[in-house]
Amino acid sequence: MANELLIKNGRVIDPANGVDKKCDVLIVDGFVAEVGRIDKQAKDIIDATGKIVTPGLIDMHVHFREPGDEEEETIASGSAAAVAAGFTSVVCMPNTKPPIQSETDVEYIHRKGRQARKTHVYTMGCITKDSEGIELAEMGFMAEAGAVGFTDDGGGVQDPAVMLRAMKYVTMFDKVIAQHCQDDSYGKDGVMNAGYNSTVLGLPGIDILAEEAMLWRDIQLVKKTLVRYHAQHISTAGSVELIRQAKKMSLPVTCEVTPHHLLLTDDCCADYDTNFKVNPPLRTASDVEALKEAIKEGLVDALVSDHAPHLKSEKELEFLAAPFGIASLECALSLYVKALIEPKVIDWPQLISLMTNRPAQIIKIDKGTLSKGKQGDVTIINPDFEYTIDTSVFRSKSCNCPYDGWKVKARVEKTIVGGEVRFEI
Predict the structure, then answer these.
(1) What is the pLDDT of residues 146-180, one digit of tens each?
(2) What is the CATH number of the domain that holds 39?
(3) Residues 231 and 216: beta-carbon distance below 8 Å
(4) Model confidence over 44-65: pLDDT tens digits?
(5) Active-site residues: which are they?
(6) Inside any domain, residue 400
(7) Rounded CA gap, 320 and 323, in Å?
(8) Whether pTM exceeds 0.85
(9) Domain around 19
């Protein structure tokens, strides 16, 4: 007998198919069988009245720290956090210890993801060996093993000649090359945004030119190679303008934005709280508004968490010594609602698109839609549920999160992966 799951009476939002209506979703043997008004009985029925039903959310930028820093996060704990947050697919960054830079490394991440049996776990591979920016990594072998793209995230590829070689190479197997845009000439030792606040606090700054100069350089290289290029976690108004111009030229350039660059500014660093230390750093209020306008305009292609867990003992170091990063995977959806839905920057269908079909297109995975025959990955959201973020109940191993105690809306109630409920309240 077929294994059937019927989700009834929800507001189904499937941007890939232009669906936004109250209807039902039928999943049979792990795959979407029908979306619409379904008058039949099923073995398992979920009443989604008053809830939003979407394709499984996708986060194409997470750090699960395995291998090397399993005390901060593992693929198992990160996967548990992901499904609790509604994410049925995640993409791990390769800056682990050792880094993901061979086919064996890629296969290891995929195997650990399968063993966790929570979310679909994908990975990117390094652009250069050991992310040192000197010699190209084995991108061809990693592509064959299933890497969805390549990045030296945690730092940018400094040498333009190396980046050009990488771009030319990647075009051979149609993978995306993603860049942490930071030219170290403009603040290699910086720990926050360069400006008034960094001067007052006596902290070395990272100039906005660090991001914008590298993004400009890479766009010139894209013109030459036409490689699919993705700018990670953009944070400045100048970067928005560069992306706008690249898209006007119809270049294959995409970009992503994080919750912290939409909700926080460098004013938050005033008390030297290291939970606000991120890279790229928190910028100014005018940069925040530029990013929101870019999202409204449709220039941004994906919303990501940049989930970066760290030990409490590490974040208790002084601001200069503490590591960069925020653990925000489990509250990412609510943070986007606070930043974008509540102030009416965009609506729910636009938000869901930025968290489903559009990131799926960037990394070329067959996800992010409720089309018939697709794997039954579904997220059910209560958009009106109000709660207080409590890091003590995070599934993640780390709680370096500045949003602890924030009152937010929109809670994931069920996460379904391949027709199986992997998380429910």
Answers:
(1) 999 999 999 999 999 999 999 999 999 999 999 99
(2) 2.30.40.10
(3) no
(4) 999 999 999 999 999 999 999 9
(5) 306
(6) no
(7) 8
(8) yes
(9) 4-52+378-394+410-424
